[in-house]
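Troubleshooting: if your tokenizer reports a length mismatch, compare against these two reference records.
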Amino acid sequence: MGSTSAREGAEVMALFRRKKKDSPAAGEKSNSQLQTLKDAFALTRKEKPLAIIYMALIFIAVVILGIVLGTVFGHPIYFGIISTPLAFLAAFFFFTRQANSAAFASIEGQIGAGASVLMAIRRGFTTTPAVNVSRNQDMVHRCVGRAGIVLVGEGGQGVNLLLQDEKKKMERFLAGVPVTEVVVGNYSGQVSLKKLQRHLKKLPKKLSNNQVREVRNRLKAVGGLNMPIPKGPMPKGVRMPKR
């Protein structure tokens, strides 16, 4: 549970991270991380204002608990000092979970929200957004990784037709490469926005690293369409696929 939450926290912060053209110096990197925390804090306060109060209460509760235990064992000051960093960690853990929820809530229902989440995956998958789009703004995004080709659809009922059409194209163009279909949504058989990254990472690995590179090279010529990505903290941290 702890390791999973830590990974989620890292990914939440990655959603807010801004791109740099050049490798940042130590000072610039520190400033970027500080700005990332500020963005996350501002978004959490906007989407979940009570979360900040709960975070403060958690910090205070852990410190008080440490002092109480210290009083029982005859060392209240020592236990109070020890409990302070533990209180900070507990409050920060709660903050990352709330920031995660706030980040997804801020783009829920927007066009291209699924693409923003997919392109924030730091490694393992390369995403090309909007490889197929309908007039009703249903769309399909293509991810390539060791699981093969993953087609992710978002939109209304018409997205299933787009997925079938794109799957046929991939099967003709790259015969033998496994193709998986995923529909973003909150209904039965769909994957919610907040679980999308985790769902892709849990897919069984069917290709070697060399095969993945070969598939990506062959798909470079196919490309995708230009599309609007939702505004807000999450798009600032997307990692555009290399061309």
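Reference record two:
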Amino acid sequence: MSSPAAGAIDHHHDPSTTTGIPNKKLLWWAFLASDCMFFGMLISTHLVYRINPPPGTHEPTQVFDIELTSFSTFILLMSSLMMALAVNAIQRGQVRSMRNSILTTIFFGCIFLGCHVYEFVHFVVDKKMTLTNSLFGSSFYTLTGTHGTHVAIGVLLLGLIYVRSFQSAAPGAGGWAEFGKTVLHVLAVCAAMAITFIVVVPAGIGLVKGEIGLGSFLSQHLASIGGLLAAIAVMVWFGRSRQPVDFGERNAIDVEAIGLYWHFVDIVWIVIFTAVYLLEYL
């Protein structure tokens, strides 16, 4: 077996640890193992309740919008591809390429979350299925809501690692000025993500479905669209920076760790989509 060239970074083995696995990666694997059991419990509970549904339970096929859920599932799968490209890019020291892939992953994650927001509102308002009025609603919202929370946490982690990649390596960098810029950058990224999946995507779905007109869409969400454009403008301003950054190939383990989490969340959704949605149509 060939050994890494002198000075090269081995991203998969760490001879300084007892296991030979980087400690950060091992910690994430341990966390994901516990999370796997947690989701297994939630999925099993939902399926057990579905085997013997009590009287008055909502009929899932009359509640679900399988076309929308299939679309959001496809988007989430594509986000895994972009996450893999981001990890590959940083392992090659290509920071700009990594940023582009992470931004695309964040965008896809926000679309998925926006579909969830629209779906939940639609179920509660139109289908009258709430968390407390049926056993099916309780198990469904608990399971999919927990997964959605995991996706939101993943999007936040990706946003933070994206901002981290702009940390200046210039002599004398640091201090309150640099801290203020970082805070502004984080706020812009978080604002763009929140507005996208809470307001823009759900409203956009309603527009595509013909529930609202273009005029109503613009008038009702003008402030949100303005806020989103302002946040994007701040992100573009930071993205134009050409100064040296304290972020590179040695930080690949951080990106890879978040990538492990993101891929895990995607795999869990494939199981949920199959067990909760598709099985109802068989």
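Descriptive notes for reference record two:
- DSSP finds nine helices and no strands in the chain.
- The first helix runs from residue 23 to 51.
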